[in-house]
Amino acid sequence: MNITQLLNQMPGAVAQGLIWGIMAIGVYITFRILDIADLTVDGSIATGGAVAAILITSGVHPWLAVFAAFLVGMAAGAVTGLFHTGMGIPAILSGILTQLALYSINLRIQGIGTDLGSRANVPMSINKYKNMLVSLRNVGNFSLDNPIWLLLLITVLLIGVMYWFFGTEYGCGLRAVGANQQMARAQGINTNTGKVIGLMISNGLVAFSGALMAQYQGFSDVSMGRGAIVIGLAAVIIGEVIFGKKFRNFALKLLAVSLGAIIYYLVIQVVLWMGLSTDDLKLLTALVVALFLAMPYWKSRLSARKLKGGAGNG
Amino acid sequence: MAEKEMLILREVYKTFNPGTITEKTALNGVNLTLAKGDFVTVIGGNGAGKSTMLNAIAGTFPVDRGNILLGGREITRLPEHRRAALLGRVFQDPMTGTAASMNIEENLALANRRGQPRGLRWGITAKEREQYREKLSSLELGLENRMGSKVGLLSGGQRQALTLLMATLKHPELLLLDEHTAALDPKTAEKVLRLTDQLIRENGLTAIMVTHNMKDALALGNRTIMMHEGRVILDLDAEQKKEMTVEGLLEQFEKVSGRELSNDRMLLTK
């Protein structure tokens, strides 16, 4: 084990964490604000990558490509929202359905312009497409073309926009939809529309993150979103466990999510460096997330038992 | 005088789970007319249809048959969130009326925008904050100093008082109170009830209050109706109310329904 080898990996982990942090902020909007576990994201992150890759490789400017990815992601979220609110399908199943459908759609998007009309992988080398926004090629550089700077700027801007949006009349209404649907309706809020809009914003951000991811790694792959929801949840939970007590303000809570994603990738780098196989990574992530999700439940059972014990003594 | 009629329920029917083993006719042709400024208390045994009637007015579910008119406007087919502009509601469970994870002023700001389009203006202004502080201090619960606190931290009584304030903030055409003091301890219930009466009087509101407490039902409002098996079986005006006693109500119930009022909860609270 060579420590400089680990240190060399750190900037890359931070960059990856920042990209996944954008995705995790999208997950936070559905999971924490709307109280919906939305599994669309496994598909919509790859959709974002596919849209960006196909546009960039056909000469569209990368900024325009990530914006297009954002819009297509919003459409994916709208589909899940309509499955749920218009067809009465449980939210979690609605997300799974969209995610599955997106797999085919992503193959088709990536296949645009090919003879087969379907493709699992779209390479886009930084050598060929020099104006790409971020690339892991530059992540070790001490210069302005290091992707970390731009990713930091995007994250800060995103947190600012989300802070503003969820403070507006409409955003407050969305928070009420997640907090108490009955109350929201009694205050004249259309909870169905609210959920659809929330899912659209969330998946728009997830696809935006996927568009950056594809540029960063230099290719878009149809399976790049596998397990994305779990990584997103891991980021949300890590952020809450570490910063939850101190970060009360909404903007700080979103910052905690982004930091959670960075910490997740730093820890991953460490365990890989210590010899864990990348093949076992998803198993580890799933177990860690399961453990953290169980904590509030275990805590409440523990305090219930204490209460019972106290009553017995008294 | 048609323009003075605030609420009209005409032959309203509602059956839950039709065609199944749990089929239940909750509203069996309800007729009720409220004049502007009426404060009606509603009593009746469990399953009499009291809460169902309020929920039918609020639009929680579509009714099977009949018409509901509010302020001269047909609302029978209007979705719940659209009717909210005309209504104020307080529920039995103190958790239901407020958003626990949002703070006091945010809850009030949500209520203050009931019936208005919600845009991208900031969700709460400095001016309305002052207005909320004033209104909260009139509750005399000290909530005006805790406007940034999450509502989840408040007691049941405080939450119901806040919900009442939220429900009356926009001077609704009709205030619906669904056993809103039933989950509170007697002393707090008394306080919330007094506040209810005060807010209804001050704002000149039309209101329907469901209660299990017959004494409260007779003491408050200018009208009392009794429901049984999804129908209004007794309707007392202000004069008749004055002379009515709890014993008298029980007697009336037996006479009209042809059976004894065997509701423990109701007997206990006489």
Structural write-up:
The complex is a heterodimer of chains A (314) and B (270). Chain A is 73% helix and 2% strand. Chain A is built from eleven helices and two strands. In chain A, helix 1 (3-33) packs antiparallel against helix 8, helix 9 packs across helix 10 (250-273) and helix 9 (228-243) crosses helix 11 (281-313). In chain A, 48% of the residues are buried. By secondary structure, chain B is an alpha/beta fold. Chain B has a single domain (2-102, 172-268), classed as Rossmann fold, CATH 3.40.50.300. Helix content of chain B is 36%, strand content 23%. In chain B, the strands form two sheets. A six-stranded mixed beta sheet of chain B has the order 6-7-8-3-9-10, with helices on both faces. Chain B starts with a strand and ends with a helix. The mean pLDDT of chain B is 92. Classes of the chains: A mainly alpha (314), B alpha/beta (270).
Q: Give the C-alpha Rg of chain A.
A: 20 Å
The rough form of chain A would be described as: globular
Estimate the strand proportion of chain B.
15-25%
Largest sheet of chain B: 6 strands, mixed
CATH class of chain B: Alpha Beta
Number of helices of chain B: 10
Cα(first) to Cα(last) distance of chain B is 37 Å
CATH architecture of the largest domain in chain A: Orthogonal Bundle
Low-confidence stretches of chain B: none
β-strand number of chain B: 10
CATH-defined fold name of chain B: Rossmann fold
Envelope shape of chain B:
globular
Helix content of chain A: over 70%
What is the terminal-to-terminal distance of chain A? 57 Å
